[in-house]
Amino acid sequence: MHDSLHQGQLYVTVDMLILTIREGELNLLLSRRKDTPYAGRWALPGRFVGLDESAETTVRNLLEEMLPVEKPFLEQLYTFSEVNRDPRGRVISTAYLVIVPGKQLDALMKEKQTPFTRFEVSTGDGGLRLAGENGTVLIGSDLAFDHGRIIETGVQRLQGKIDYTDVGFRFLNDLNAFTLGELQTVFEAVLGEKQDSSNFRRDIRKRYEESGRLVLTDREDKQKRGRPASLYQLKDIN
């Protein structure tokens, strides 16, 4: 579909950057394109926006078809509108961040046959690097269209917001029962660097306990070795 576009017309697409934490690493979902252009290349999932729907409606419908996430976290990332970003014609894309907790994603990918492969994401001085669970290693220019730039923009947005918004909590499997160690793992995966445990816990408590949103429960996590860790609950996530 849309292998060739009418010249002189403007088309709008959406692309989804689906992120999760797996084994302490930031992961995203990619699939191989079946159609031209870039047939066989790895790409973000996306779709053309219909005349009778909004960009967000298109994203939600596509997500429901490909990966029916319960109450997904969606956030509009950026609109990519470079003139020559799509060789078929004049196409702009609005990209969305989608965050899925690890256990929920694991269950969905076991229950439903999906075209997705998980890739560990790393950014830094060497640029974007994606390491697939199938052994594939990619850099930004290996991807279809400008999807490498979309991924870098999304990760940078996430890194910039995690210290002053609730977005890091969106990766947790259970907002009513989590440890501060689990939350620290999320921050380390997103930021790509280790956090000092004492400083991290102090900062989180200062930000959330004073407002009454971070609540210490009377339960403990006894599944891991060593001393049981206290379980917390986050109220009124933003």
Automatic annotation (TrEMBL):
<protein>
    <submittedName>
        <fullName>8-oxo-dGTP diphosphatase</fullName>
    </submittedName>
</protein>
